[in-house]
């Protein structure tokens, strides 16, 4: 198995990304970091550096991406995305996951957390990601 050094991986969703992922993972074809970035197989390229510096840079990048996001909502979205991928051969999978997402959103709304977050944004206590 070949290793790609100094990149973070994400699940490719586009058909091109899946095709390239298959070439790399199944057939062991080597691809350059830039080509993998362009086809969506990786989402970030970090410059060559020591392992310690790389880990610090990745951690800083991820913390920046996660800043202001609600961990519970992120974990629920991850669970729902995985459920969709697991059941991708089921023609009703998208409908099932959409219903689950709607239920999760309703539960989240009822919890009062979104109201608290929006109030903090309005008071400029936190910054919105968009």
Summarize the structure.
With 130 residues, the chain is mainly α. It has helices spanning 15-25, 33-38, 51-66, 71-86, 93-111, 113-122, and strands at residues 7-9, 42-45. The protein has a two-stranded antiparallel ribbon with strand order 1-2.
Describe this structure in words.
This protein is 60% helix and 5% strand. It has 130 residues and is mostly helical. The chain has 2 domains: 7-66, no CATH class; 71-122. A two-stranded antiparallel sheet has the order 1-2. Helix 4 (71-86) packs antiparallel against helix 5 (93-111). The model is unreliable at 1-13 (pLDDT under 50).
Choose one word for the global shape: flat
Q: Count the E strands.
A: 2
- Our estimate of the beta-strand percent is 5-15%
Main sheet overview: 2 strands, antiparallel
Uncertain spans: 1-13
Provide the spatial order of strands within the biggest beta sheet. Answer: 1-2
What is the C-alpha radius of gyration, as a whole number of Å? 19 Å
Mean pLDDT: 77
Structural class: mainly alpha
Helix content estimate: 55-70%
Question: Termini distance?
Answer: 39 Å
Count of the domains? 2
> Total helix count?
6
Name the helix and strand elements from N-terminus to C-terminus, one letter apiece: EHHEHHHH
């Amino acid at each position: 198995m070949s290793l790609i050094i100094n990149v973070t991986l994400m699940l490719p969703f586009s058909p091109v990304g899946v095709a390239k992922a298959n070439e790399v993972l199944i057939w062991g074809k080597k691809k350059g970091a830039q080509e993998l970035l362009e086809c969506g197989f990786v989402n970030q390229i970090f410059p060559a550096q020591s392992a310690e510096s790389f880990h610090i840079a990745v951690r800083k990048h991820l913390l920046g991406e996660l800043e202001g996001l609600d961990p519970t909502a992120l974990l629920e979205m991850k669970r729902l995305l995985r459920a969709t991928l697991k059941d991708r051969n089921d023609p009703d999978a998208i409908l099932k996951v959409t219903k689950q997402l709607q239920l999760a959103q309703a539960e989240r709304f009822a919890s009062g957390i979104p109201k608290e977050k929006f109030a903090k944004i309005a008071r400029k206590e936190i910054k919105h990601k968009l």
